[in-house]
Design goal:
The protein is α+β, with helices and mostly antiparallel strands. The protein folds into 2 domains: about 30 residues; about 110 residues, Lipocalin, CATH 2.40.128.20. It contains 1 helix and 9 strands, in the order αβββββββββ.
């Protein structure tokens, strides 16, 4: 087999590198462990007055779907629509960032919400912090 000229070898290596990077980008979402359907199990948030509000006491229930870097969710309160939204998300190294593109509520500070998260089996726990204070916590169960 004849050796490739340096110019052709360089072009081949660049092409292979580009193909590898593109393949990685295209499959990144497909291997995302968060993809799928989720059902809200419990949660709490801090209201505008600083009080912690438990989702159970508010009769909140929710569903969320994540696929290919996109999310959509709906939340009901006592069986009636309460909130919903959809947009893009990204997750990396225990951090989950949701950026709603449509929402039934006013978006805070630029519209991106950053959460710390853990995934233990089919339980996904999200926590949103403002400084040293946790302002939101949600526990989701994967729907199989």
């Amino acid at each position: 087999m004849d050796a490739l000229p340096d110019k052709d070898l360089s072009m081949l290596l660049r092409s292979l590198t580009t193909a590898t990077l593109l393949l990685g980008a295209l499959t990144a979402h497909a291997t995302d462990a968060l993809q799928g359907a989720w059902q809200l199990q419990s949660g709490e948030s801090v209201d505008p007055h600083g009080a912690v509000v438990d989702y159970t006491s508010q009769k909140l229930a929710g569903s969320k779907v994540l696929a290919d870097g996109r999310f959509a969710f709906t939340t009901t309160r006592d069986g009636a629509f309460w909130a919903g939204g959809s947009g893009t998300y990204r997750s990396e190294a225990g951090q989950y960032v949701e950026t709603p593109l449509m929402a039934s509520y006013p978006l805070e500070k630029g519209g991106s919400y950053t959460f710390r998260y853990t995934l233990e089996g089919d339980l996904w726990t999200l926590e949103r912090w403002q400084g040293e204070r946790r302002v939101e916590r949600e526990v989701w169960q994967r729907v199989r």
